[in-house]
Amino acid sequence: MRRAMAQPQHDYPLQAFLYTVALHRYLRWRLADYDPSQHLAGSAYLFLRGMTGTVDVDGRSHGVSYWRPPTDAVLAADRVLAGGP
Fold first, then answer.
1. Which of 3, 7, 45, 72 is the most exposed place for a label (fewest CB within 10 A)?
2. Residue 40 Rama label (left phi>0; alpha psi -120 to 50; beta)
3. Structural domain span for residue 52
4. How much is the pTM?
5. What is the CA radius of gyration of the chain?
6. Of 26, 23, 16, 24, which Cα lies nearest the Cα of 68?
């Protein structure tokens, strides 16, 4: 599954990151007490064909890819997308 996520033609990690930045911007606008380290959880991709209903020895479910980018990276991307440095 990691190979599928890393294939350059899909750009799943980039998609997940940009969706996380978009969610950060939305939550900042909608929540008065918004704190990205508390309210921003990350993203998960579910590969239905890879889901077997089993859990490996590390507690991970097969067919699920989860990633929480560093909060500083999300904030920096937000600044760049807003036209800042």
1. 3
2. beta
3. 2-81
4. 0.77
5. 15
6. 16
| Tokens standing for residue 7 | 């294939």
- Domains held by the chain: number: 1
Q: Compute the distance between CA of residue 62 and CA of residue 34 in angstroms, rounded to an integer.
A: 32
- CA dist 40 to 16, 72, 77, Å? 13, 12, 15
Residue 33: per-residue pLDDT: 95
Task: Give the C-alpha separation, 7 to 9, whole Å.
Answer: 6
58-76 pLDDT per residue, tens:
777 777 888 899 999 999 9
Residues whose CB is less than 8 angstroms from the CB of residue 5 and which lie 6 or more positions away in sequence, other chains included? 12, 13, 45, 65
**Contact assessment for residue 43 and residue 65, using Cβ atoms and an 8 Å cutoff:** no
Distance CA 72, CA 37 (A): 9
Q: Which residues are bridge partners to 64 per DSSP?
A: 46
